[in-house]
Each structure stands twice: as structure tokens, then as C-alpha cells.
Amino acid sequence: MVTSEAEQPVSPWMKPALRLAGIYNLTWGLWVMLFPIASLKVCGYPAPPTYPELWQCIGMIVGVYGIGYWIAASDPFRHWPIVFVGLLGKIFGPIGFLIAYSQGNLPLSAGLVNIFNDLIWWGPFAVILWNALRFAQTRNATSETGLPFSEAIQNFRSQDGTSLAELSNRQPFLVLFLRHSGCTFCREALSEIQMQRPKIESEGVQIAFVHMEDEEHGKKLFERYDVADLPRISDPKQVLYRAFEIGLGRFSQLMNFNVFWKGFLSAIVKGHGFSKVRSNVFRMPGTFLIHNEKILARHIAKDPSDHPDYGNLACDIKN
Fold this sequence. Notes:
319 residues, five-stranded mixed sheet, 14 helices
């Protein structure tokens, strides 16, 4: 039995990291509130301000954040908004200091506090948020249990009611598992299929799609690229994706220069654009050549922009 991808435990370090952030913020906030003048000197400010109460107010705000981090530590994924707001503050704080420093309003020594209050927390908070998003998307889009390959291709049917197994028994099929429809690479793949369709079909191979949208929304996308007549299977819970062992992308796969550059070319230069995210942004694409309920060839993408030469993959039926 295929287990649920939603069963992703919180990494052991996340809760202690948030508790440490809570303790640090509370300690720093209390120190500033109780000893405003001394803390200003330690933090690199050359002279006490006219209104030290303003500095104490900042200490109070930081201390309140500490309470929030301690609460978030009980369930980092559930309380991700607290972590998100905290990270925003830790980003805008150093930005505000740099602006003030560039204008000559603060000395460089005053930036020391940003290192300990803000910069060192960027990494842990960002990783917690990334994993919280991954967990939420997977939990909302994945069934509790998966299906084995043989059962999945029998259960899932195209828009005309034909199962994927029945399609594969008729003739070889090149099956494209698409990313979410808001992704420019999903649209680029449909455009490439439109252009390569004559070559693929000349090899005696038919084409089918598996997508994560509901049928109504998916149909509009396929009509846009003039491939709506081809078999397509809606799989919002991504059971078929998992049966074909198409996993979730890692951070290094989804967020790298190659993806950003090719995404720019696809969305802007080629004009495929992008739109609202409606399904799992972490799910990777994949392409399979199947016949008689067996996989003859496959291409599992290295990153979202990685598309095979669909025509050449179809030719594997002769090998």
C-alpha cells in the first residue's frame, strides 16, 4: 500500500528553534524595556534618544513576538502565519537599518543588533515556512491512501469514460503528467505536444494527459492549445501521479537559476504566461510510454522545466 505523502513529520529541530527564538525575543524585549539607556549603548547607538520610551516600545513589540514564537513551536506547520509575520519583520528590520545608515541617520555599529535579532533567523524561519507550505499542499491534494499501478490505471478514466488501462490495451500511449495549470512549463508542454503531435501519431502512438485540475478548468486549458480532443484524466488528489512514482520536487529542484531562466523564456519570450495556482506546486511532471498496461519508457523530470523530446520518446515503441 502506498502511504500518504501528507505524513510528513515536523523536523526535530523546528520546535526547539522556535522556542529558542521565543526565549531570545522575550529576553531581549525585557532587557530593552527595563534598561533602555544601557541597551541602546550596547546596541551601538552613540547617544540616548530624547524619548527612550520609543526604544522601550520596540522592546515590547519584540517581546510579544517571542510569545508568538513559543506558541508556534507547539505546531510549526499549523501556526505558520506567526512564523511568516516574524520573518517579514526580520527582513524589513535590516532593510530599514540600511536605509537609515545610507542617509547618515544611524551609525554602522547600530546594525549589530540586526545580526542577532534578524539575520540569523532567516534560514530556520524560511525552511519552516517552505515545509509548512509543502505539507499543506500535499495534505489538501492527496488521498489518505494510494493505489498500486495496476489498480490505478483501471480506476482512472478519461473525459469519455475510458480507463487508462483500456487506452493502453488499444495501442501504445504517450502519457504526459502535467504540473499545475498555473505553471508556464505545463503550458509549454502542451504547446510542444501540439507541434509534435503529427510525428508522435505517425509512430502509431496516441497521446493522453493526466492533470491535477478539475475537468471543467482543465478542459479550458487544453482547448487553448488545441489538444482538447485527446484523452485527458483529471487527478486532483494525485493518486495516479503517485502510482507512477512521480514525486514532489525538492527545494533545489524547484528554486534554482535554470528554472527561473527557463521560466522567464517560457512565460515572457514564448508567451505562455502563468496564472493562479490551483493545485500542488510541488508535484513534478513526468512522461511515460505505456502499452498493454505496462510502462515501456519513462522520463522523470529533473526540474519543472525538464521536458523530453516527446517524438523521440514515442519512437521507443520500436526498441
